[in-house]
Protein 1
Amino acid sequence: MYFRCQILINGISYEATDDLKNWDDFELAYKRSDYDGVLRSFSTKFEFVNRSYNLLKEEYSKNYLSSSAGIAFYKRNNSWNWDKVFQCALDFSSYSDDGYTISINAIDDTLAAIIKAKRNIQYEYLVSELKPQSLYYDGLKFQYEAKYVSGGTTVEDDANLQYIQFHGALQAEGGTRPATVSFPVYILDNSELPKRDSPLVFTDEPFTTDGSVQIFAEALSNIDITLKLSFSFYVTADNAHGTAYADVVLFVKRANGDLARFGVWRHIAGNIPTIVSELINISLNSGDSIGMDLLLYNSATPITMTWTTYLRGFSLSVNFQSRINSVNIDVLLLTTVAEKLLESMTDSSDYSVDIYNYVPGGITRSRLSSCFIMPAESARNLPNAKLYTSFKKFCEFMEAEFGYVLVVEGNNVTFIHRYALFDNYVVKDLSDQINDYEYSVNSSLVNTSVKVGYDKQDYDSINGRDEFRFTNEFSTGLKLTDNTLSFISPYRADAYGIEFLVQKRGEDTTDNDSDNDVFIVGCQYATSAENGNLLLDRPYSSSQLLGLISPDTMFNIEYSPRFMLEANKAYIGACTNMLKFTSSDGNSNVSIAGIKETDDFPIDNRLFTVGEVDVETSEVDIPSNLSGLISLDYNGEAVHGYIKEMKINVGKTESVRYSLIVKEIKS
């Protein structure tokens, strides 16, 4: 027999090869669960007789449910030595005894089995206990708009027409001096203004007749604004002497008290309405303020009279760009998060995590090395901020974002690019020692569309329309199935989502819908840790980024959906060599270094095909490298494929069954 069995009790090994009653039922299997690494599995129920029966019965009688025993299997190698295939514990909660045979299940207590059982559990951790790094966050430059409505009285039956009325006197003092009143405007609730660190203060400008200077905006720092003003107006008077006219004046009151006019629009009574449609750029210094006056004249003076100024379609807005004052945010290393999750699942710190830094073709720099995890509560600076995640979410993020999958070896967990688990060389040649050959197409790999990116978020801001790190969808050009291949990261990368959370700092509420979310953020190490040891990574110049409000402050560029496609393209290429853009949940106008997110996506190589081959062979030796190619000959064709599943019946080692993922078939 090629295999032997031992049971282990209290540190002593006992030969059990002849005591295992159900050898014929025992099966070893090596399987790729999801086109990643090959994992071992085995049947879990064992039946023992003879001496092993007595040893296990004695252990159970002495220690009851605290009993401890294990089972180990060995395979004879070519040198006639025994190599351990695997070892696991026996589960005494499944113990049964019919007087002749003890039946007991095995516990696959390998790290891979523990991860499989607990990967869906969500854990929460205090960020402060995860050795956070400090990110000096200088944020995004946002586009803001303060909207105003006229404070005049609305004309009955015409909601679009208002009037401002003043009754007063004009005196002749070496020339005509106007009656000056403020031009009333009121800020609208649907204005979009900074929630913190605003460079401008906006107020209502009331209607006054005492000639005092009234304002509707004041600069707290130097800022450039664009003022949009649109309306038509005309003036009427209640007397027959002279001609009435009026000026609408837009002015800036400088910090030193000087007044500077930036627009004067006149209407003379009896003429058609004056139309105002202006776009005015103004540079304000700290302490400067903006206001509007209405100057009322009459050609005959002195006179006391009533002026009525009518306004139609009034619209006033102040547009500007601004960014918050910089703050520090706690962020986490990927390995720190993975190791903490591993510790929680295993109740042990004896396990380690490695993340290999691999740059697939088409990507010129490592997106992985600059990636950090940012809990939403850290962005908001909540007291005792926490991270909420599961190992499954971490793995899904690594696969969707970087094409990395999990490999478990002993006490070590490695995240490695999927490409590295499909070696392009033959590790075992079955030649023609096969039977029961069957080729088939795996329809689950035939996809009509590919979705890539992140779940769409809803923002209460017009700036959110600029966000492009949502879901993009592409067509493979195939119409054979309705399958969709998804690379959707459970961790968010939307820079605007991060910015909105940071702007909520200081708010009392803690029930924000995003507080449990996890973000990733691209960072680079600072040359000086004066403000924080990390800075936002902005690897592209403004000229390389098109379709964005503020390309010079944008970050997380390299976590766009297109980079995620690039990281997974050879896997996607199993069924197509071209993806054609169909739709986007976000800003589809973005172009990065001359490539648009909406451009078609060519795929120049494939990791494997959609074909599968099932064979049985008398070649029972297990390949030394389970990631390499298995070759065989059939009907004059050379077939190369990767192990999808390999099954060995330990009690009947006459044959091994292979299911291969076909790499290529050559005539």
Note: The longest strand covers residues 303-322.
Protein 2
Amino acid sequence: MTESPSVGVLVAALPEKYQPIFAHPELSDGSSRGCEDRLVLIRACARHLQAELGRPLRVLDLGCAQGFFSLSLASDGHRVHGVDFLDLNVHVCQALAGQNPGLDATFEHGTVEDVIELLEPDAYDLVLGLSVFHHLVHARGIVSVSELCRKLSEVAGAAIYELALREEPLYWAASLPQDPAELLSSYAFTRLLSRQPTHLSTIARPLIFASSRFWYVGDSIGTFNSWSGEAHAHGRGTHHHSRRYYFGERVFVKKMTLGMGGRAEINLQEFHNEAAFLRNPPAAFPAPRLIVTLDDSSDVFLAREMMEGRLLSELIDDGSPYDADQVISELIDQLVILERDGLYHNDVRCWNVLISGEGRAVLIDYGAISQDANDCSWLGDLLLSFLITIKEILERRIVPSTPGREPALDFMSLPPRYRNAFIRLFSQDQSRWTFAGLQDCLAHSGNETTPVPEWTVIYQHLQGALLSYNTRLRALYMQTEHDRVELTARAAALERVRETAQQAQESLAALKIEAELADNRRRELEESFQQQAAWAKELEARAVSSEEDGQHLAARVVELEAANASSFARIGELEVELEERQHARELAEFLAADLGRLTEERNILQVKVSDAQRLSEQQETTINELRSKAASLHRRLERLETSRAHDRRRLKELQVDLSQRVQTMGSSRARVRELEAAVEVLEGQIDRLYASRSWRLTAPVRWFSAKVLKRGASPVGIPAPRAVAAAAPGDLASPADAASEKRLAALDQLGSRIRQSKQ
């Protein structure tokens, strides 16, 4: 694609070329950041999301800069709307969109916060917020920006954020939260896509996918209808809020965080257990299909087929009917299948049993399946733990699990068939305590009453003692929790008391200083009073007058103290004003140097323009000479046309050469016209600068630099700028000076561009 002069001029006027220029590699050199690596990840996400929705996406690019991501996604067929607070960026984006009319891309000049506040629900499928929100945090605070992200989580399908970190050595870093994910806490699902290097420091920034509607694991995207931080109602923070579960119509997704201290190792082990089991489950075990797994070193994700049914614990809690014998029989069948393959489920609980619509029981929580033949509870033995689960199923009551699982091991209270089976099993050697052995004992046990061994009496006494111990332990645990909460409250109160005491000490120190000052003042007054008393003794006749003088003197002292305080305040103001004037002087020196450089550049540019005009005149003379030569050759051709075929061929060659020269001269004239137009634009901008308010306001500074400091004087031969209105001696540079400096920099870039084009 040939370079458009208008785009080149707009790019040259940018204060910073942050991104590559879309479809213009010749203009992309010197851009602050590369974008191709992030574009690959964003395009992949957009492609998977498009496949899930079945249509092109509606994309909102917040802080679009020069529009590289917006136009790249639009070239993939998506409809994109970009927003940026800098109008120069928006002008570049609109010019690029005009060069590519086939792309569905629009751009808007505005602030991120204003755009978010006006968003309607479901207006966009994907939002991009790449390295823009840390500026908002610095300006508006963490709470305000978190609220903006919450609004995005509610109205947009998904978002990709690139977030700055507090560790970066930049001025806004102190305003950022310790964990950047705090800004995205309102999203149900988040995933770290990568860590991206920047041009500002060696610290890489996280690129995060966030959504409250879609899960994104590996190369798969799907929707979820609900999610929870607990797998079941009896979780009660067992995993310290390090897990999230997402429920869709056909897919179940589990996310486990690896950054939660002691839970990291447990989460990682259970992730590997579940992935390994679902990849190769035993043939007869009713396991769901594994879809995808992901370990990104920060979190682990597992997506599998969603199984239909309700948890057995939910049926027990709400009193729903189920066939207890069938449930126990099917659970034992599945445990025997695992046992034959050398696998064991170390967490057989009612909340890990799924009851289908047909009443069939399926054992879930595949992360608890491993080759370790131990239960996760303090009991350790799998059969004793399963005995408690059987009692829960038969009695339709889940035993307490806090602080530890209640040891409800009294099998004598079970129905006769189960009681006889456990008596038969526990009468054998412990090496034969297996699920296959329990299955065999149940198969050979009936409902008849059998003699009870004497050892069961001791067992019952131990059961009662364990229950009593567990009751006391639970009470102690509850008391400990109560004490912990109370201690926490007391610690907070103590901290407040310490803060109050510190403030009181500071106030006391201030009061002591004031007391010392008052004491000094009192002594001074006492001395004055003694003098007045002496005068009173000597001049008793003037006692009344002396008393009035003393009162007047006290009032005068108060006035002097007030005047003294005012003087101190004035001294502070003068110090601030002195610093401001010193800063203004430094700015004036910089401005004088920049102004001298600008006038020198303008002088050189005018010389170049004169050279271009002379070159144009020479080219016109050459054209006239070539035309005369062509006419002469034509007459010569007429004389020799009948006799010389060679001359005829030579004439054709001269005609071709003439045509090429005429075309060359036409393009030279067009180039000269472009240069003249650029020079007129430059001169017009310089004239507007001279006529601007900031130029007039800084006139005293320029005069001071030129006349007093002897800096920034106009070169010889360059006309001085037009006269401006005199400003007050105390005027300082206005905020418009910063804009003037940016315009001068843009003009400087434009002049350099014109000189390079001429060369």
Note: The CA atoms of residues 11 and 360 lie 68 Å apart.
Protein 3
Amino acid sequence: MGFQSAITIAEAVRKIQRRELVLPAIQRSFVWNDDQMCRLFDSILRGYPIGSFLSWKVQAETAGQFKFYDFMRDYHEKDRRHSQELDLPPGQAVTAVLDGQQRLTSLNMALRGSYASRVRYGRKDQAKSFPVRRLYLNVLGEAAENDRGMKYDFKMLAEPVKQPADGSAYWFPAYRLFGIEKFGSLMGVLASHGLGNNEHAVTIVGDLYAAIHSEPTLHFYEEASQDIDKVLDIFIRVNSGGTVLSQSDLLLSIATAQWDKRDARKEIQSLVDTLNGPDQRFWFSKDVVLKSGLMLTGVADVGFKVRNFNRDNMTRLEERWDEVSGALTTAAGLLADFGLSSATLTANSVLIPVAYYIRRRGLGESYRERPADRADRAALRSWVIRSLLKPGVWGSGLDTLLRELREVIQQHGEAGFPVAQLEARMAGRGKSLVFTPEEVEDLMAWQYGGSGTFAVLALLFPHVNTRNLHHVDHVFPRSLLTTPKLKRHRKYTEEELGEAIWYRDSLANLQLLEGPENIAKKDQLPEQWARATMSPEAYESFLQLNALPGLPASLDDYLGWCERRHHLLGQRLAKLLGTTWPGQEEQPANPLD
């Protein structure tokens, strides 16, 4: 192993173009954003070193045993986020990049391709939300003062680019420089842009051209051994030294290399995409999927350690992949049925024991709707939500907790979700789901927009069918509760006004309404809305189910009403969590079934 002669950026990109430089299956997907790509080119134009690269010279006989991928050229966040697998001709040797993929992909993408990411607030189902952009450089001036440390003004811009009418900038297509093989042709290109007589533009474009075509700045350190175990060890040692690659990326590389009949990288990424799809609305990572694989296939130690990803364990995971992926998909669907999403699921790890329970009983998608399983789903829902609300359950000691949860479910989960046994074991690990009165008070202080607020409301109102999309709704419309509007209805002391504003977004003024119902409600006063949409019997039932102390027809009694409902909800939450609310007599623990 040793350093090769340095090559230019253009030479490296041409090697990628000819597929002489490829990506081994042990590499992860492209993860850099457009800002990182622009900063890379800023460093190149300034003459800064951009680091060395580690490659693996794969002989033809070895290359035929493994999977390789092409470098990404045209990235699209919605439609094309992963590199394509290469079908290498028999007998072809390649050079695989072990370290430097993100930089080389950025060079290839910026000089030969494009980058399309979703614009802020853009809808995911609309093509215009993902404009295709290419690399441009403002050749009339340097970058404005910024906190990214950039000197030159590189940007990824959608075409056609509109040049400022006042001549304050000119966006030159930097990607065109790759296709200009002779320096003499550069002046003609500059002239075609009306820049041939602009000294600053000629200088800056000429410097960038030289940095791409003339200066051998890329240094490759090449490993020639054909021993895959040695190569994997080098890859892990190189990439685990920093924080750029996650641990799951490194361990996924081993699974990918050891699966025989399936493409582990493709299968796992496809499952992640499914779990996070529009029906589920989550943001699970490869970490959760990989740890679930260890958990569901019975690996004794579920920790992210290289020894746990040995060939025997990975062979078992490959053989049982359909069962594992099916259980995870059903489990994610259940969490969605419970009303949870990426915005409200405060600990992704809760998916793992739920999936293990699904697989333990051999349950499928029908479990989510079958009437005979309604009580079991309610018990599972209660346990999930309370575990999310209790501080520290899914934090430190996670691997030990998961192993013990697996043992309990294996022993007692044959006929139903073993809530009592699980909670007893968790209490023994210092992760009790019994709440103190002080913890209930803390929960009652949670506010609108908090990640755990939906879970508290779902626990308070178990009658709500959270399979339907629900909004966290203000009982008294937020738009009516500004300081000026409150003052119009009564005289508040400074302290009372502060309380009234605090209650506005507190649990006392929140409820769960189905999306269309909440939209129709708009900013009506609660009593006006309820009387217009409900029969007298339904109105009384609505008050009782939602712990509402009546619904005033005006804001006159808003503060007093909030105080009464805060107390009612506190009592209900304390009862559900098996503890007491200030002013109540102490009661025995009676958690929600």
Note: The first strand starts at residue 2 and ends at 3.
Protein 4
Amino acid sequence: MDNSIKQYAIGELLDGRCLYIPSYQRGYRWTEKQVGDLLRDLLCFANDFANEGKEKKQDQFYCLQPVIARPITDKDKLKSILGTEYNDSILEHSVWEIIDGQQRLTTIFLLYKYLLDQKGWNAETLREEEDGKELYHICYATRDGSSKFLEGLSMKTLSDSNKDDIKENVDFFHMANAFKYIGEWIKTEGKNINIRYQLGGSLDNIRTSFFKLLNGMSDTKGGSVQVLWYEIAEIKEKNNVKEFQKINTGKIRLTDAELIKGLFLLKKNFTSGDKYIKQSELSLEWEFIENTLHANNFWYFLQKKSSDMPNRIDLLFNLIYKKNALKEVSEDEWDNKIKEIDELLSDTRQSEIFRFYYNRFEGKMGEDLQHEVASAWNEVMELFRTLDDWFCSPSTYNFIGLLSQCGEDLCRLVLHFEYMPETSCREDFENYLKQRISYHLRGTKIDQEKKAILNTYKEHDTIYKLLLTLNIHLLNEQNQKLESESDVYKFPFDVLSAQNWDIEHIDSFHTNNLKKDKDKEDWIKTAMDDRSGDLKDEEKSLIQQKLEGNALDDAINLLKKNAQEVEADEEIKNTIGNLTLLDASTNRSYGNSLFCTKRRIIIERIKQGVFVPVATQYIFAKFFDPKGTNRSLWMKEDMEAYHKYIYDALITYVNNEED
């Protein structure tokens, strides 16, 4: 038997099954906050239906985090782990080793047990009243008495029990505390919630809402609580401890991709031989996609800095889900719809994307199922090939990478690309990308008469996007002139994402003022070395006197005056003509040094293989100095020439929004 994934309503688990908690797991430890959070979610979900007065097609159930379980059918094994609890009918109800999910399942047990207690129902009454339902049983490998304690829980038994005995047993204490808290919560928080929903303060109504929700089956109108049941094949028993450690170390949970992979690779999906797709072929393609996406140069042209996923193939499933949700939505409404979808997907407990595929395959059998699985996988491969094609073209890669860093949702680009007429060419798609860049540059303020960009250093986000766009434009321009498809003309978005990049003043006078004497002395000595060829003997002597007399600020001002870095005022120095992008490491290495020192350090960094953006290289190569004589100075004329260059390069992007 292979691993499998199913979706069960809690009502479908109320069949008297036994849930076995092995020795490698800790006991029940949920706090009042965790119990309260679950109760609030369940009651609010139930009340949504009551308020709407009609059933919803979507979100018809509340989905718990996945449970990972393994069936136990071997009689000798069952006798060994259950001891005196074993009987011949145990196999009829089934026994499951719970590898992950004990805390959630125990809390649901405690809630259901409390509701039965308030109704005054025993097991026999439950079977009669609820069509044969029987609460599942929880038994433990090493926690003597815990099963019996759970089974016998009621408000009366708790009041009659010796409180010291309960406190001495940490498992009993947490179980009893959660049981009592459920009752307290319903009387306080639950009542307040129902009043807010305009459903009155009846405690019986609250308990009834919970009871109906937990008894609901997969097709029950009015909602149910459901769980993704990830079943590990019984033959893999030896891996259970490893599975448990992997899942619970750092609280890592199954991602949609892991659940979907299990769904795609079920054996029943491949019984038609080679007619559709082989299991091994799908598995290899899956690994190839995942490995490709784990190459950071590929990943970070698709994703914004600091965006990552444990399984990066999740991105493809996310895009496919969005594509299907946006099929009937006009492009001018995509932004609002995408926000709604993102909000829905942000609740990872719902495993919304997994359910999208689960529902797609559910109910199909034989060749119909195999065809559907092959079709779904072909959609994944087609999307991957599209992304790979974009990656291979430097100009397309650069534009999409820029948009990703600006926060563009990749789904918009994928959909537009797919909807383009067959006669469209790459240039048509890149024109659309430029329009989207213009959208993200909409905060740009320009003076067309003076040919100037009016945004200043304080408008950090807009300046950052403008400077990043400038670097992308320069690379694409070089690539176009040489008619090359070389990776040399791709912007390294992985480097951008790995480092802390920021906007740097080229002439940093009035910024990052030095405070410590030691820092000032180091600055003076470095500046004197870098300006040695431009300092007259009397200037050197005067600066040395100031240094020895500890008149450090005077020495700094003399050096800046010699370097002509006092001509431009603060307003000019905060314009885009005095700003560039630089990584934090290089920035820290030169701080607020003179331009000549910065230039020397940057040249050394380039020689060491450090990536410096092409626009920043142009600046320190004095590309904007028409005379080509003042390599050690950055003056007002340089700022104005650089500003004009930026304006001329970016004006088509700024004014390129679609009408």
Note: Confidence is low (pLDDT under 50) at residues 54-58, 247-252.
